[in-house]
Amino acid sequence: MRFEERVRKYEYKLNDTDDQIIDYILNNKQAFVHRSIQSLAAELYTVPNTITRLSKKLGYEGFSHLKNAIRDEIEANAAPQENSAYFCIQKTFELLDPEVIEIAAKMIHDAKRVLFFAVGDTAPFCELMVRNLRVSGKAAEFSIHRHEVIHAIEQMTTHDVLFLISLTGETKQVLEMAKIAQEKRVPIVSLTHFHANSLQMMAAVHLYCYAPKKVKNGYNITDRTPVMIVLQALSQYYWDHY
């Protein structure tokens, strides 16, 4: 996983000092790989331990691992085969964050009511999750009908959870439900492709997969296997702990 992707994945762990260090690295990658941790800390008016902690927050073993990984990124300099199914699956596994999976599972478990919603080819995954939760005795619901979902959200409270799936994070119908839920202060869990998007910004917890949009002859042929991987990981955690 590239440095920028790690920053997005673990952004919920970062503070202002971390952001300052990250900005330096992003703007000075060539110079960064030749810096010692002591000289970098001095230039950024911090201490080496802060940089080491940041490295570990981003999933590196330490500062040396971070520096070597960025050096490898610079030397690789070739675009990955992002259109391959293997690449999307591999990236999705890299994006799985056990801490976020745990938080989402606990939210679902503690909620009095859980409602899933998606549209189009992604909608069947909502039905799948309802069945998966039923295995552990957790009642959940879904509907593909707009008016039914709106009615359900209007009956929900802060003790419930709305789980929304949209790979683009910009699906009009899904954002409509998210806005209604926000007005009701209903917590939202989102699952989207790994990029900045409107739905992710509205969610209390956001899960990522790697499923960039693909179109052929006017048809949406986006690979939805990554969606299944994330939902299976969430289901497995729920089964194991609840």
Number of strands: 7
Secondary structural class = alpha/beta
CATH homologous superfamily of the largest domain? Glucose-6-phosphate isomerase like protein, domain 1
Rg for CA atoms: 20 Å
Question: What spatial form do the alpha-carbon principal axes imply?
Answer: globular
Structure description:
Strand 1 (114-117), helix 9 and strand 2 form a beta-alpha-beta unit. The longest helix is centred in the last third of the chain and has 17 residues, at 225-241. Helix 4 packs across helix 5 and helix 9 (124-135) runs parallel beside helix 13. The mean pLDDT is 93. The strands form two sheets. The chain has a five-stranded parallel β-sheet, sandwiched between helices. It has 13 helices and seven strands. It has helices spanning 3-9, 16-27, 29-32, 37-43, 48-57, 63-76, 85-95, 98-110, 124-135, 146-154, 172-184, 198-202, 225-241; strands at residues 114-117, 141-142, 161-165, 188-193, 205-209, 215-216, 219-220. It has two domains: 3-76, Arc Repressor Mutant, subunit A (Orthogonal Bundle), CATH 1.10.10; 85-241, Rossmann fold (3-Layer(aba) Sandwich), CATH 3.40.50.10490. By secondary structure, it is an alpha/beta fold.
